[in-house]
Predict the 3D structure of the following.
Amino acid sequence: MEADVAFLDRVAAENRERYASAAPFPHIMIDDFLDPAMLDAVLAEFKARPSATGFVMDDRYQRKWACNRLRDMGPRTRALIQFLNGQEITNFLEQLTGIQGLVADPQLAGGGMHELRDGGFLKVHADFNYHESIRLHRRINLIIYLNKGWEAAMGGELQLWNRAMTACEASYLPIFNRCVIFNTTSTSYHGNPNPVRLPDRGDARRSIALFYYTSDRPMDETEAPHASIYKYPKGEETVSARMRRFGRRCLPPIVADAVVTLSGRKRRLRARTRRLGRPGTPDA
């Protein structure tokens, strides 16, 4: 697979300031990013995938299928991912974002192929911030969408929310050959919480996701390693929060405290199982 290096250089040179100043956090949307014939072949492999490959995530945070094992992908899909993990793209991302020393993830933790069928969604979240296996900091997300004829009524748009969770400040339909790139921090809240609506098409929302890392990160972005952090819009109280509030009112303090402690332990255990490519690790 050959890269259009001149195109990548031009996009990076012309959009550095736009990327850095984008709200609610540094990002860019690029249409017609790759050779459409190549993506057609990747899409065909998506549709023909054996049903036993990958894994399904279905809980209160997400409903989707994912595959991050190269051996389970078709040859065109493998070639695309190897290209996106290669030198041309990491050089392009460094020029565009200003983040130097980017390296790709050979394990595709949380990345690879993603598919959401009718009713599929991914709640707004900030991604895990540290890859424990390769001991690197997660810095950049790159997502390429593969959906032809996608319309707003079908849902599934990528939403980028501000740090206070008071507003979705950018939204992008997952249309064919659209690429979205954004900085990954502990407050870069994003997701596709609006469920996919495809009752009459029997189709799916499909994407390829890649993540890029560095050996360190700015001090003002540094947090203790964490799994994905899910967020809700301001004023939208979660079920668990309502239950805790109810328990505080109705149970003796010692019992309410014990319940909260036990719930916290369960959440931390679930978070550990969602990390780094295990079932439950999200993308956008």
